[in-house]
Model the fold of this input.
Amino acid sequence: MVSLATSALALLALVFGAAEASAFGTINGAGQHAEHEMITRAALACAGGGPSDGTCFEPKSLDELAGKPGNFGGVGAPDRDEITNSDAHCDDADYLDKPGYPRTRAQATEALESCLSHLRAKFTEAWISAKEMVSDSASPVIFSDKVKIAGGCPFTGSPAGRGKCDVIDQFGRALHGAQDFHSHSNWNDKSNSSKPISITNPPGLDNPGAAPFFNLRSLATGPIPHDLATGCFSFVPFGCKGRITHGTLNKDTGIIDPVTGATSGPTTPRGELHGGANFAAAVAGAIAETRRQWEDLRQQIVTAYGPQRGALMICAITRDDPVKDCQGRRLAIVIDSSGSNEETDPSGLRVAAGLAFNASLVTEADAQSKGGQPDKSAVVSFESGATLLSPLADPSMANFTGIGAYGGTCIACGINTAHSVLLAGSAGEEPPLNRDGIVVLTDGQDEDVSAIIAEIEAAAAEGIRTSIGFLSPPPSPVPAARVSARPAGERAALASLFEEERLEPDPALVSAIQASGGIAATISSAQAQRSFVDVVLANGLTAVDDPNGTDDGGILAIGIQVRGRIEPRSDSDTWSYTPHPKERVRVTLAGPRKVLTVRLAKSGEVLKKIKTKGVGKTANFVISDKHQRKLEMVVTSSGGKVPGYRIGVAKAAPART
Done:
């Protein structure tokens, strides 16, 4: 059935010419090949239609965003009800650096800013609408009536408390304009080199990929290239006389492979230039822009609602059956009962941390009252061996009695028992068990590191994530006796040496934890174990909570040093921390040839930039913010072959007056 909007597009194409009446295409017909849909699918479809890891959309959810035959989808919606709004398509920002051109650079930039403002409003409505899907509670659950897409979403353009449909509607509209920018502008393309630059042959900027200034998350646009232009579009005959027109500059139509993004058969003059390379470049730019905007929306959702609730929202947006697939986690809490805890944690704060982990889970009572799925937890204690203190059951039934301070340390034993309990609790399910996680709290590591690594890898093979918090982990064995046996003059120096050494768990062990998706962190004191709880919860107990774990960063907390990993020159991790009012914190980065850029999360303003040098070198500085503004700390590499690094925040001494 042909919709009225489709008929209108076809009529406009007949009256004004197909090139003048369209953006990247939305329909199959009137010279279009559903280009917006194909770009969105190439950018955001999960490979092979498989499960989402948060970066991609499952088939039914993608249908609502990208559109399908008979459904414009969120991305196509502006071609139904915003077709005459130039801001929705980033038109009319035309400029040519030639005497007598009727538009100044300032006017063109103003038109582009107007487009960005319009799209930012849609982007903002998308992340604001996400709150409708998930309860605002310590143990958040998904509201089943707010994530339904059966029967299709009504794309009205105005949020109406429909949760997932509102997110898809508003985000799709933001994507439409972002994709159109690459078709309607000269950002990615090249001019005809055989002809002089003119209004019919404007310069091409030949830039690859997304446009850095096209930032919908921030109010700061950034510098606009002097020769950047989009085409003038008008339904009035000769309304663009003497200007670069949409018909001259657009690369709207052609064939796009929805899987690979490969292009063929461009049909506009600008798109056909250079053997169709201009059309291919515009499509590649739009695909990169679409991925970038989805990444930015994910980050904004986490910033606005916190990592735990935000991750659940992202899962609900991308999964077709989020009530079933995003909830019902199984967690094994593994706590050290070895004798050394008598000195390192005499107050049993690791038990309090374990209780806090358990309290963050969704009980059956919580789930029933809110329409979600409950979690399950088990408690394991270990010293020379391991003991199952509490079987896998409703978190309200968890038992921590029996955790003490006696015997040796066999972390591998604890992980092995936890792994077995989780496997038994998932009988009948096929790996990967992405809703399963193991959290270990220990004050040291046993001598058999290879055994710990083997257990972590065995669990990871089943999709089980392992995170370990090392409470002041010493080298093995504990060196306290070695220090006290030395002459008094040497004790301070040796204590300092061991202090540095204790902050570095075995690198191979750290790599195994990270490969599982878990967090490897050192905890500066027994009191800071509660902060470790916050860090793990924020960065994801399981793959359902955050598929990437710490791969792309996360949150930081006082007294916690987190291990990260980035590939040289091709990766970045973004960590965040919100200081208390007037709080002074010391930020430390360790790892060869790493760069740390500290910026304000809201505005992007850079506050500090530091670099490390060789192996074993650290860089640190003190920062304070009386306004309690959220900080983002971006770690990148300046080269070198070692990807690992350590980052953390600690309380700093008061400023001298």
Q: What stands out?
A: The two ends are 75 Å apart (CA to CA). The first strand starts at residue 28 and ends at 29. The longest helix spans residues 269-305.
